[in-house]
Write a structure and sequence with these properties.
mainly alpha; 74% helix
């Protein structure tokens, strides 16, 4: 007997929830001098580790919360959810830092990347939590 594929549960509504969740923490954190300073001082490889930790955490939370610990037939949807959360959190961080003129994209792109990832780290968690509220 063939297993029935679970119904998709990742919708445009979820994307809206992810966006609102990312804004909840990204905007307040993007205006802190600590993030600006740390973004200027942190080595890029350390920022990459923070980024990886964020993606892994989003993945584990989603794996258990949204998919009940099984990805049978929904692996692509799972990957899309994790990617969407992380992408939106980074875009919200980018826009927030750009608006307050703390994103030196042209002058110092490494600092800009560091700051975006540092702000997106907690923003991706709040995005995932808001998305999980039903």
């Amino acid at each position: 007997m063939l297993k029935k594929r679970p119904k998709s549960n990742f919708s445009p509504k979820d994307v809206g929830e992810i966006f609102i969740g990312a804004v909840i923490l990204a905007l307040p954190i993007s205006v802190t001098e600590e993030v600006w300073q740390l973004g200027s001082e942190l080595a890029l490889w350390r920022t990459a580790l923070i980024s990886l930790a964020s993606i892994v955490s989003i993945g584990f939370f989603g794996f258990y919360k949204f998919y009940g610990g099984s990805l049978d037939g929904v692996f692509t949807e799972f990957c899309a959810r994790v990617f969407t959360v992380y992408l939106i959190a980074n875009l919200v961080a980018l826009v927030g830092l750009l608006v307050i003129d703390r994103l030196p994209l042209i002058e110092d792109p490494i600092v800009a990347i560091n700051r975006i990832i540092l702000v997106a780290f907690p923003a991706s968690f709040s995005a995932t939590i808001v998305d999980s509220l039903r």
